[in-house]
């Protein structure tokens, strides 16, 4: 059977990985500054993660949400402690798109309204309402286009208010640092303004922390820098360090009722063990602090490269912008220097999304390669 070819693949076959490195079938070592698309948070095959998942699998890997699963409550407790989002309630699912679907659906149930405000260059996933809220017409099928979504300019509070005045908006969904879109971030005044407007017009504020969450920005969630209280926070990627797990944190203003949301796989025993391991290692190895320190180091190194036009993002969610298309440079970094990097909607920008365990010596390798090629 042939594979349904939707991915343009690099000709690299990772068969093993350890911390910030992946190895191909010939034992060639690569530096992973991409983290498999911001997924690897605590490092590949971390011993705590491997041990906890193995142990869990030997006990019970899965049972449905029809029975008690104390691991979910344990995870909710640890997540509250790590994120400081103590008042929220947790619903678990299995991917970022699914987290946003549930967030948008919940917003619509809660407000009894149906349209959505999203922002230019947003990315929220590839399913139903999540893809309809993604600013990329190429991946929105006619079926998805039936959803009513308005894309507004990031930072334009007055147009947001004008749109909310129609009284039909169930949710504003926003990435506090844009990922796929190219690392843009607005001002604290803008995010705080959104919160005020959402409360004024009975609209749910959803912050999409699928990529920026779980310590990647140097804060547990990127919105926390702006001192806002979203109604729903969506999470995935770094949450499971590779195990497919996602979730939403829901403000108690929004009430649960039986059957409102549901999923077969969400919050299963292995997913909980993976996320609990991530939280344990984030804390034990002080990885959020490391993300902050490595950002400072990266920014200092970037000062020595005059071709860099701008360095965007925060923590270990960074975008290095040039005044030329980076496609060829990224290929050279991968095939000649054995360094994985990420792309974005902005063709001139290299995305840096490494495991949060990265050290100065790895950043040096990147800059040495960059200097050689520029
Ligand atoms: C901000 C953001 N939201 C949602 C998603 C979708 O997540 P998933 O691919 O797990 O469905 C992504 C994926 O890149 C993302 O970056």
Keywords:
374 residues, alpha/beta, Aspartate Aminotransferase, domain 1, Aspartate Aminotransferase, domain 2, 2 domains, 7-stranded mixed beta sheet, 4-stranded mixed beta sheet, binds pyridoxal-5'-phosphate
Sheet-strand content, in percent, reads: 15-25%
Global shape: globular
Amount of helix: 25-40%
CATH superfamily (homologous) name of the largest domain: Type I PLP-dependent aspartate aminotransferase-like (Major domain)
The unreliable regions are none
Under CATH, the topology of the largest domain can be stated as Aspartate Aminotransferase, domain 2
CATH A-level architecture of the largest domain: 3-Layer(aba) Sandwich
Count of helical segments? 11
Query: How many runs of DSSP E, i.e. beta strands?
Result: 14
Biggest β-sheet: strands ordered side by side in the sheet? 4-10-9-8-7-5-6
Structural class: alpha/beta
């Amino acid at each position: 059977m042939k594979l349904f070819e939707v991915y343009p693949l690099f000709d690299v076959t990772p068969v093993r990985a350890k911390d910030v490195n992946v190895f191909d079938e010939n034992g060639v070592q690569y530096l992973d500054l991409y983290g498999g698309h911001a997924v690897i948070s605590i490092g590949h095959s971390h011993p705590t993660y491997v041990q906890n998942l193995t142990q869990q699998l030997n006990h019970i890997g899965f049972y449905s949400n029809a029975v008690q699963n104390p691991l979910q409550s344990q995870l909710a407790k640890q997540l509250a402690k790590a994120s400081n989002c103590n008042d929220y309630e947790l619903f678990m699912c299995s991917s970022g798109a699914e987290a946003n679907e549930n967030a948008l659906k919940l917003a619509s149930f809660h407000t009894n309204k149906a349209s959505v405000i999203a922002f230019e260059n947003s990315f929220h996933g590839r399913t139903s309402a999540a893809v309809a809220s993604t600013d990329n017409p190429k991946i929105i099928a006619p079926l998805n286009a039936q959803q009513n979504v308005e894309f507004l300019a990031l930072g334009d509070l007055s147009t947001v208010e004008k749109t909310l005045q129609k009284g039909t908006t169930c949710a504003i969904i926003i990435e506090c640092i844009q990922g796929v879109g190219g690392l843009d971030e607005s001002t604290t005044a803008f995010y705080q303004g959104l919160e005020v407007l959402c409360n004024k017009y009975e609209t749910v504020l959803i912050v999409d922390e699928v990529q920026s969450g779980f310590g990647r920005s140097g804060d547990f969630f990127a919105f926390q820098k702006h001192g806002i209280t979203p109604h729903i926070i969506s999470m995935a990627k770094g949450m499971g360090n590779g195990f497919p797990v996602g979730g939403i944190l829901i403000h108690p203003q929004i009430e649960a009722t039986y059957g409102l949301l549901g999923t077969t796989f969400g919050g299963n025993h292995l997913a909980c063990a993976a996320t609990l391991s991530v939280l344990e290692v984030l804390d034990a190895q002080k990885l959020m602090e490391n993300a902050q320190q490595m950002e400072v180091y990266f920014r200092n190194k970037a000062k020595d490269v005059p071709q860099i036009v701008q360095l965007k993002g925060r923590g270990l969610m960074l975008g290095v912008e040039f005044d030329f298309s980076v496609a060829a440079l990224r290929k050279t970094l991968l095939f000649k220097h054995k360094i994985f990097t990420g792309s974005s909607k902005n063709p001139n920008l290299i995305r840096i999304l490494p495991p949060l365990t990265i050290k100065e010596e790895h950043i040096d390798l990147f800059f040495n390669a960059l200097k050689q090629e520029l």
